[in-house]
Specification:
Layout (H helix, E strand, L loop, with lengths): L1 H15 L16 H23 L5 H19 L4 H19 L14 H30 L12 H22 L2 H33 L9 H24 L1
Keywords: Membrane, Transmembrane, Transmembrane helix
Length: about 250
């Protein structure tokens, strides 16, 4: 799901920047830019379907995920002329979640009680608040890491701005958990979301570093590790702490 969501800001930047619309996504590819973006959009939709299938615990979810890894790796290898570092980072992004999912058995879980309409509405509102909070943190932290802005018409993101936005996003998540009502479920979802965000962003940062090292080795200072990694570590520790609170109850 994070992979699908991460495509949205990239699409925004392409439409906000006239130069970006003519830029290719796969270095050395003979495909047109429109076809390259069509493949990226298709991959994002596929990732979303895989994520929903896994969350719903469908038996065919693992097979769909394996097919996605094979197809995405093959496409990256054949349609582009990337170097070994880019290929390795792409495989890292694809294989890590696959290994985690393959080790976890998929079992249908029955609700121990039926939810009322009010409880369902509150749960949906809480999940939407969580999703908005996670997306907000992802946008601002990636902007901080790359030394850009979260929008096309603002200045580059600073550490102070990023910290302020992260605090606001965490408050939104807290409010969503309060509205949710079910403390145990809300804490489990919040902790898992923060841990997953930190892990996903570390992998994204590694991919970005590999890309810059291969295609722009003269500009290593474009990436801000020292400002971004402490914040990712904080989010991961917060997620583990929240998850531990659920286990201790």
């Amino acid at each position: 799901m994070f992979s699908a969501i991460s495509t949205l800001p990239a699409l925004y930047w392409i439409f906000a920047s006239e130069q970006g619309r003519a830029a290719g996504l796969f270095p050395g590819s003979t495909l047109s830019v429109s076809w390259q973006w069509a493949l990226v959009a298709l991959g994002a939709c596929w990732s979303a379907v895989c994520a929903i299938a896994l969350m719903q615990r469908y038996a065919w979810a693992k097979t769909l995920l394996i097919l996605q890894v094979i197809s995405s790796s093959a496409l990256t290898w054949f349609i582009g002329k990337s170097g070994p570092m880019t290929h390795l980072s792409t495989l890292l992004v694809a294989v890590l979640p696959l290994l985690i999912v393959l080790r976890v058995p998929i079992e249908r879980v029955r609700e121990w009680r039926s939810r009322t309409m009010t409880q369902q509405i509150r749960r949906i509102f809480g999940l939407c608040a969580y999703g908005f909070s996670i997306a907000l943190m992802f946008l601002i932290l990636m902007a901080l890491f790359s030394g850009t802005s979260a929008t096309a018409n603002t200045m580059a993101t600073t550490s102070t701005t990023a910290i302020s936005v992260v605090v606001v996003a965490l408050l939104i998540m807290l409010f969503g958990g309060v509205v949710w009502g079910d403390r145990s479920a809300a804490r489990r979802a919040a902790g898992l979301s923060l841990i997953a965000l930190a892990i996903f962003m570390v992998v994204q940062c590694v991919m970005a570093a590999a890309y810059v090292r291969e295609y722009a080795p003269q500009a290593p200072s474009l990436l801000h590790w020292s400002e971004t990694l402490p914040m990712l570590l904080f989010l991961a520790m917060t997620g583990f702490t929240v998850r531990r609170m659920v286990r201790e109850r």
